[in-house]
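thread: overnight batch results

M.L. [08:02]
morning all. the overnight job finished for the chain we discussed friday. pasting input first so we're all looking at the same thing
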Amino acid sequence: MQLSELEIYFIIFSCIVLFVSFSFFGLYLYNRNIKNIKESIIEKQLMKTQFQQELLQTQLEIQEQTLKTISEEIHDNVGQVLSLAKLNLNTFENNTQKKLDDTKELISKAINDLRDLSRSMHGDRIAELGLQQSLTDELQILHNSGEFETHFNITGDSYKLPPQKEMVIFRIVQEALNNAIKHAKAKNIRLHINYQPNLFTLTVQDDGAGFDIVAMQNKNGIGLKSMQNRANLIGATCTLQSSINNGTIITIELPAINLLNTANA
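M.L. [08:03]
and the structure it wrote out:
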């Protein structure tokens, strides 16, 4: 059976229409895929930029807080110790040997305190010393003030985190310590790091006044939201437990998937 000329034209026309339709459909899918890729690239770039800006802000805040701590420590602690040493030197006539021994002890304390402070002034100390030693130094400064009892407990086999993550975690802890001292009026402060292969956990606990979490979050107070936002930025979580007159526990958890690489970096 032979096809008529009209039928042949119809088949050819139909094939052309199908070919053009498939071509346009393929071009649509291609363009949509390109658009999705571009949007994904832009989104990742924005996240990277946000991370870098937050990291820079964290560095500046750490420096500001460190300088403030150094200023207070020199004024309230080292200055007082040296004043006592000077007083002893001015009254050597009575009980000379005992005053000499006391003066040596006071000067030794001032030297040790200044050594701790000088280590804190180093701009890259977190990257160089690591999170663990940086936190130890931070607690030592608090302990040297004579107003706080500090404890640092470590469990598990320790490992280093990427420097950016350690810097952000250090700043969160710094904020938590600042809250415990100034707002909660705590006297005992405990830090605990638990190194697990699949999870890094850091806990800051104080025996201060505590607070109503819901009421405080509604007021957006004492940097709680800031700590949680910083934790989210590096793929971690920051949770708080507190109640009035029962102190506060702040827990930072970094899952294994986020231990080595930062998606935003």
